[in-house]
Model the fold of this input.
Amino acid sequence: MVNFLKYRWLYFLISSVIILSGLFSIVRWGYQFSIEFTGGTNLIYRLEKKVDKDIVENILKEKKIERLQFKIEDKKIFLKTRSLEKSQEDDLKKALEKRIKSRVIVEKLETVGPTLGKEMVKKTIIASTLAIFGILVYMSFAFHGFKYALSAILAMIHDFTVLMGSYSLLCHYFGAEFDTMFVTAVLTTMSFSVHDTIVIFDKIREYFQEEGKKNLEYFANKALTETMVRSINNSMTIIFMLLSLSLLGGSTIRFFVIALLIGTVIGTYSSPFVATPILVWLYGKNGKK
Done:
């Protein structure tokens, strides 16, 4: 049996460094929000030949179009601006065709207001609150102890904080966007975190039922030793799939996949190294549920 809890100070240090780095990023740089939250027009133009970036930027200045994001990949222009009227978009397209002397094909054109993103966040907060309450009630009854439920919720909050901070760094350094797909990744991470934690806690409960009143820290280390390999193997199958998607998938889902990848890794880490040490701390290493 491996004494995993012997190094709980190290787990605390690792989590503290990651969380503080993320919080610094959130306060210092914040997020780059998608047009679902800010409102605007999302355009993708396909060209018949490559075009210089400066040409497009000059046209945008001439037409007095405020761009939020702009990039050119191969023969495609990806452009996000403040909300445009259909006439403005037509005028932009014609000016671009005239300047580059080539046909411009509109692959994507959507204009949305900021209501969608705000409504999504509102519903997500309500759903998360209900989920947390449900987990507290279920685990309190299932494990006959509120501290088991509290440990799982604190570990889930840990994962949420790490993912939010990490994504802020992705927004600042790699141009990721805070969009509805990221909200989906956050909810998925929260559910994954609790799932692994319940497996470990169930083992601890099983040992109490079989062996009676013994040292809680002993049972926790025994549960971690027995479930660690299985948890890592399960997570690795997901991680390999997400790595493949992040490398080979399209740009539209790349940061969504990366967020899921971060959530999977941190969820696998937090169940044994955050939730379990918190449980032992709440009860005291010699306590029982």
Observations:
- The chain has a mean pLDDT of 87.
- The radius of gyration is 24 Å.
- The first strand starts at residue 40 and ends at 47.
- Residues 216-248 form the longest helix (33 residues).
